[in-house]
Amino acid sequence: MHAPLFEAVPNFSEGKDGTKISRITEAVRAIPGVRILSLHSDPDHNRSVLTFAGEEDPVLSGALALAKACATELDLASQSGEHPRMGVLDVLPFVPLEGATMDDAVRLAHKASESLGFLGFPVYLYGSAATNPHRRSLPDIRRGGYEGVASRISDPLWKPDYGPKTLDSHRGVVAVGARPFLVAFNAYLDTDDVEVARVVATRVRESGGGLPAVRALGFGVGGKAQVSMNLTDLEQTPIPVALEAVRSAAADLGASVESTELVGLAPLEAVLQAARYYLGLRELEADHVLESRLYGRSDPRRL
Amino acid sequence: MHAPLFEAVPNFSEGKDGTKISRITEAVRAIPGVRILSLHSDPDHNRSVLTFAGEEDPVLSGALALAKACATELDLASQSGEHPRMGVLDVLPFVPLEGATMDDAVRLAHKASESLGFLGFPVYLYGSAATNPHRRSLPDIRRGGYEGVASRISDPLWKPDYGPKTLDSHRGVVAVGARPFLVAFNAYLDTDDVEVARVVATRVRESGGGLPAVRALGFGVGGKAQVSMNLTDLEQTPIPVALEAVRSAAADLGASVESTELVGLAPLEAVLQAARYYLGLRELEADHVLESRLYGRSDPRRL
Question: Above 0.90 for ipTM, yes or no?
Fold first, then answer.
């Protein structure tokens, strides 16, 4: 048995200054046992999203090192960008990976929040870690950005879960959460009519009575109608099932799927599901994949 | 840059005696840097197939440790089984994995053969490592088993490539080769008519003018007609292309593919190919797979 793995996906309020971004990410990289998976910096939003993973203790240490570096390097009072930011370390979701449950991620979110509180960050818990239903949704917490939070923080309904109950204009607040692994999967249609993508999105998503654990929106991207999906539970709805629903809904409107794309990372299981589904495989597990056997955490000594 | 990886797939002439099989495989397992991937022992054929992998030096040491253990534990003179065996260590193919070319595997086969020769094993090189076209095919080397080899060994055409030029009745000879990674993929049809599977196999395989790098045979397995395929070069013919050819050939005969199976291991790229093909993905590389990023050999420090 191996220790459960977690992913942290902190969003911090700097997307332009390469030196600062580098100092902040290096603070995480310096923690033994942390594996940096990706970094996306967006200059327009003046915001970066770092993804790192590891066992509980390194991920927790990485998150705290990142928070300290954000407090040192960044100043919300002098920061601007399109994104309605509320803190230098803005959002910090924890995601359960191999061997971890959502409850484990919620516990980790609480543990991190307690330490962030000691470090002087007011913390709102959100997502599966929320202590109150009206704080479950991140947009509700963030409404109005820093100024919105400042106007609400003395309201007992919006008392921070951890840390100071007042705002420091330099560091702001941080929303710490637990959420499932998201697979972002987009389908491009053979039409430039965004309305077709919107209708397809409405039909396939859970909120429209479609597939469970599927969020979908229609956009126009590069002259093509795009159905943009977030799959939040691949056991409930794997990629092939979502895609076939899009293909079918598009066909009803006289359109078809020209190509698709996976944004960011997908777990190996998502790829195995697709291979099983379309190849008609009786069985296909990670154990059948050479690289899993060569590099995986499965103990080869037990063979 | 990482060192190239190789796989060795030795076949040795013991498939019944668990103690002996275990002593032989433990000799390989004891080599640091060797990863045991699988062991299949067949009592009827009285034969075991061990698969292990690693960088060049550990794989070479593992192969030599295995050969010594086979010579110690096994005696061809007192061995019997359905398989036409020719040595205690019967066949030793090397397969290029990540970062390795077929030429690298051929060099490794020669290096291993030289050492096996010093250890007293007469060696025939086969496959891509063959020194002579008439020794390229393993069945040609093995024809008649030990007795066949004994009758040919003094013929200059069949002089061993390395080691003694005479046979020791206890250890016999070993065929050392280099071959591509094989993906074994079977399709089960919705008919019990083996003839349908045979006709489909003939149409899809390279030797029948079908797909390159595909070998195929038709069998009856568990009351179903089975098309059994070996794909020897997934860049030339990936699994989905082979399967669609089988589906199409079967449909021409009024049959269809009910299910499929992958026997043994497949490289991650084979699964990615299937997902790309059927999902219409613009791009899907190992880098998009979470586990590859978590456990792979790619250096996360370079991100």
Answer: no
Same domain, B57 and B197: no
A33-60 confidence digits (pLDDT tens): 999 998 988 888 888 999 999 999 999 9
Chain-centroid distance, C-alpha A118: 25
pLDDT one-digit tens code per residue, B183-213 = 999 999 999 999 999 999 999 999 999 999 9
Which pLDDT does position B302 carry in this prediction? 38
- Among candidates B37, B283, B288 on the partner chain, residue whose Cβ is nearest the Cβ of A293: B37
Q: What was the pLDDT predicted at A164? A: 96
**pLDDT value at residue B300:** 39
Q: What is the mean pLDDT of residues A166-181?
A: 94
Return the DSSP state at B93. Answer: E
A294 and chain B: CB distance < 8 Å anywhere? yes
Alpha carbon distance A228, A201 (integer Å): 8
Query: In chain B, how many domains are there?
Result: 3
User: Is residue A83 flagged as an active site residue?
Assistant: yes
Q: A64: how many CB neighbours lie within 10 A of its CB?
A: 19
- The minimum CA-CA distance between B154 and chain A, rounded to whole Å, is 41
Q: Same structural domain for residues A172 and A223?
A: no
Considering B133, B149, B178, which residue would you say is the last residue of a domain?
B178
**Looking at residue A239, which CATH number applies to its domain?**
3.30.70.670
The predicted-structure confidence for B38-76, as pLDDT tens digits, reads as follows 898 888 888 899 999 999 999 999 999 999 999 999 999
The alpha carbon of residue B129 is apart from the nearest alpha carbon of chain A, in Å, by 24
Confirm if B155 and B149 have CB atoms less than 8 A apart. no
Q: Which of residues 135-174 of A touch B (CB under 8 A)?
A: none
Range of the domain at B108: 5-178
> Does B260 contact A239 at a Cβ distance shorter than 8 Å?
no
Q: How far, in Å, CA of A234 to CA of A182, rounded?
A: 9
Neighbours of B277 (CB within 10 A): 20
A108 and A241 in a common domain: no
